[in-house]
Amino acid sequence: MTFVQRSSVAIFLLSFFCYFFVWLGLYSINQNKVLIQSEDTIPATYLPISILNNKGFILTDYYEFFIKNWPNPENKLGKPYYLFRDSANKWEFISAFPVITPILATPFFLPISILNIPYSSSFVPIIGRISASFFVALSCVFVFLLLFKVTKNYKVSILATISYAFGSICWGTTSQSLWQHGINQFLLSLGFCLLVNNKSISALPFSLAVFNRPTNIVFAVWSFVYILIKDKKSLIPFILWSLPPLFFQLWYDTTYLGGLLNHPYSVQQFTNWQGRFPEGILGLLISPSKGLFVLSPVFIFSLLGICSVIKRKGYFEYKALVLTLLAFFLIMGKWIHWYGGWSFGYRMVSESLPFLAIFLGLSLETHLIKPRVKKIFLTLLVFSIAIQLTSLVFDFRYWHASFDNGPYNTSWLWSVKDSMLVYFAKLALIKLNILL
């Protein structure tokens, strides 16, 4: 194995260990008893069992179990929001979310099926956590390979990868349940890695990411622009590789949702763009409880990397990526739940993290040689990692239960006194018997 390959294996093992086994240790001592972080991840956690049991994408067998353990918060006797009715058979229930995530996670659930472990067992969500940790850890490897390809600097690549893996909500959120976001980070980082190595198959993971979460289309468009700039001869194979996920989605929409124009987000596509500008985009960046630069301040260095790219001659593909990231943040800032609902951090823009990590690396490539800048970076990195650890130790749901006023009166998202970090700090002081 080459040095880079050995480093990649080490990064994967370290990331996976921290993502899963740190949580497992906290779970074993009753410090973190959250098996599933959000109802959003329930269909992805249980669909693999249905697939392995030859029930396809039907979740009806688990309906009573779901409403008993995760009822509709607005109507405990009503249908949970995370389920739809099958258009072909109104008595059957299916996921209200795209199904790319549970399909990719299905192999991890083979032991559940082979050993006939009941779906009510806590092993099911634990396997979900293992699979989520696996995919996000893989994304860390691809981010490292990307950084080394772009910067040719091993130290910079390692530091930027650590920032991505442990200084972002990769640790606190996307690796902790089968969110779509963690799978998307894997797909987008894989696609980017293949793209910079001139592989037209890169279109496949980008296309999968789009059908896993439609807002990723901005990154798919950017990958198309990249091909136009760097390798026009690969355009036709690139387009062809993007088609299989489209064909699958058309089949799924027709079979389970009743038509080619229907899709899991069709109910929300015209009604939920109620986020206020510029509050949404600013909130995603600097909200005291949800902002990227507040909860992961090390990514402030990504701004320096963006500035350096804009100033450089050439780098047209990365300048296009800057515009893509801006468009992504603007789009997600318009979503009514731009703050991500009941969750820790800036999860609605977590798909941007692999790309921001590249700009962070480009920034370090230029500025890390300055001792003062190096001290600032390391301080922000340590602080970012510490914040992610607190999200594992303390339960964000209690903060939401105390302060969440919904998407219309959003003053709670701008309060410093009642912010999630201050809330966690108070809990820590109480545990240390410093604050009564």
Structure write-up:
This protein has 2 domains: 321 residues, no CATH class; 91 residues, no CATH class. Strands 1-2 form a two-stranded antiparallel sheet. It is built from 21 helices and 2 strands. Helix content is 61%, strand content 1%. Strand 1 and strand 2 form a beta hairpin. It is mainly α and 436 residues long. Helix 7 packs antiparallel against helix 18, helix 10 runs parallel beside helix 13 and helix 11 packs antiparallel against helix 17.
Following the backbone from N to C, one meets helices and strands in this order, namely HHHEEHHHHHHHHHHHHHHHHHH
Low-confidence stretches: none
Strand order of the largest sheet: 1-2
The structure class reads: mainly alpha
Main attributes of the structure:
mainly alpha, 2 domains, 2 strands, 436 residues
Write the layout of secondary structure elements.
Layout: H1 3-28, H2 42-52, H3 63-69, E1 83-85, E2 93-95, H4 100-105, H5 110-114, H6 123-151, H7 154-166, H8 169-174, H9 180-196, H10 203-212, H11 217-230, H12 235-241, H13 243-256, H14 279-286, H15 292-295, H16 300-311, H17 316-334, H18 353-367, H19 371-393, H20 396-403, H21 420-431
Antiparallel strand pairs: 1-2
